[in-house]
Amino acid sequence: MTAQTVKKVPLLRGKTIVNLFFEASTRTRTTFELAAKRLSADVLNINVTQSSAVKGETLLDTLRNLEAMHIDMFVVRHADSGAAHFIANNAAPHISVINAGDGRHSHPTQAMLDMFTIRRVKGPDFGRLRVAIVGDILHSRVARSQIHALNLLHTGEVRIVAPKTLIPVDAKSLGAHVFHDLHAGIRDVDVVIMLRLQRERMQGALLPSEYYELFGLTEEKLALASPDVTVMHPGPINRGVEMDSEVADGPRSVILEQVTHGIAVRMAVMSMAMRTTAGAQETEQRKEPLPGKGEAAE
Amino acid sequence: MNEPEDIAAILDDMAEQLAAHVGKLGANAPAMVGIHTGGVWVAEQLHRRLQLAEPLGSLDISFYRDDFTRIGMNPVVQPSELPFTIDDRHIILVDDVLHTGRTIRAALNELFDYGRPASILLAALIERDGRELPIEASVVGRHVSLQPNEHIKLTGPSPLRLEIQQTA
Fold it and tell me: What is the mean pLDDT of residues A8-13?
């Protein structure tokens, strides 16, 4: 579609999509906005700065007001787990809700675009792949969604690599092999996904001071992985913390491809999640959302 | 009608008619575009018979349909590929069945998002009654009379077969 003179298709013409962001985000909001615009929808960006908990009344009031403006879809980012789910349960039936990241819980469209990127680079057979997710697993909704998606696609081996303090207690039940040593964790892997250290979600000192020394990805350490290893990162990168610039900008990095794919994947999710006017399916769809719908892929 | 030989004969006939049209275009070489999925199969056959210089293009009109808000998104969307510039080019648009004309309307809109063609000519393997828009084909393989509850479907790509299906 990017080859078109007019980089736009008319599919969602006349629909209004609200990016309801209760938490700062540049990449996710921008790609959701571009995805909506390339589908010809009208987009409204609302940034609500909010302290901690879901303030039931306030959030519902915001919701009712937006509904009164005849909105068709919400894209929700919130610091609390379950926020998108809460909004989906309380929004009018004709409104679709896409989860653009909730607390530590999930970030389904990020995981979908990552799977799309892996598939583009490595082909459709995930069974032959070893994938390592490295870094702050504990605070990462991206990691949770990725592990879930990788297991759904029957990935050969899913590894999580992090210091003990950054691995969730329920790690084993996620369906991943746990490594506390980067050298062992990335040995012979086909894909390395580096995660950002989420300083804003950390309370107290959870980090060993020598994090970069032990878990930062360098060309030297990357040599342990499979020769055609692919390096990914959901962004934004802390250069010199999670990975060396040489790796981030190197030939095995697909970090910028992930961003481009983010637009295509979000266009697909929006197209499939947009409610149709065929009223008969409405109640059914609310109970069992389409697989393409964000909140369903928790 | 269910024999593959019949379709080959229809395609020969269509190619001959198209060649006459192409002859009138002068030096400006035309390009052919098939509409996914059946239209691409038909276009492949016509493209080979006409030996056009430009590679075959294809359109998936899922993002341009007018019934999206009623029936939702087709989950499998193929990429549209137009491996040539559209501006000032004569385009031969090919589909398998011309029925309501809505698919062609969508395809025309999509083509114009790629540029301003010199002209567009429509070729359809099968034409049936039931037009809902003022759209007609320049070259038609066969006209088929069907009941409103009957549908004609092309299966392929090899062999190409036509099936008449009935809906309750």
Answer: 91
Question: Of the CATH numbers 3.40.50.1370, 3.40.50.150, 3.40.1360.10, 3.30.1360.120, which one belongs to the domain with range A108-255?
Answer: 3.40.50.1370
Q: Please give the single-letter amino acid code of residue B134.
A: P
Query: Does A289 score more than 50 pLDDT?
Result: no
pLDDT at A171: 80
The band of A239, judged by pLDDT with boundaries at 50, 70 and 90, is: confident
* CA-to-CA separations, B10 to B67, B130, B140, in angstroms, rounded: 31, 22, 9
Angle at the Cα of A31 from the Cα atoms of A118 and A257, rounded to 5 degrees? 30
Q: How confident is the model at residue A285 (pLDDT cuts 50, 70, 90)?
A: very low
The per-residue pLDDT for range A257-269, each reduced to its tens digit, is: 999 999 999 999 9
Using CA atoms, how far apart are residues A36 and A18, in angstroms rounded to an integer?
10
Asked if the domains A16-103 and A108-255 are classified in one and the same CATH topology, the answer is yes
Please indicate whether, in this complex, the C-beta atoms of B75 and A5 are within 8 angstroms of each other: no
Phi then psi for residue A233, to 5 deg, are -160, 130
Evaluate if residue A19 carries a pLDDT over 90.
yes
Q: Cβ contact (<8 Å) for B63 and A3?
A: no
Q: State how far residue B110 is from chain A, nearest Cα, in angstroms.
A: 8
Interval A186-222: pLDDT, tens: 999 999 999 988 766 565 555 555 788 889 999 999 9
Span A16-103 CATH architecture: 3-Layer(aba) Sandwich (3.40)
CB contact under 8 A, A5 and B115: yes
Domain ranges of chain A: 16-103, 108-255
**Residue A95 Cα, gap to closest chain B Cα (Å):** 13
- Radius of gyration over every alpha carbon of chain B, rounded to an integer in angstroms: 15
Give the residue on B whose Cα is nearest the Cα of A11.
B63
Q: Which residues of B touch A11 (CB under 8 A)?
A: 62-65, 68, 73
- pLDDT tens digits for B13-53? 999 999 999 988 877 889 999 999 999 999 999 999 999 99
Secondary structure (DSSP) of B89-107: -EEEEEEEEESSSHHHHHH
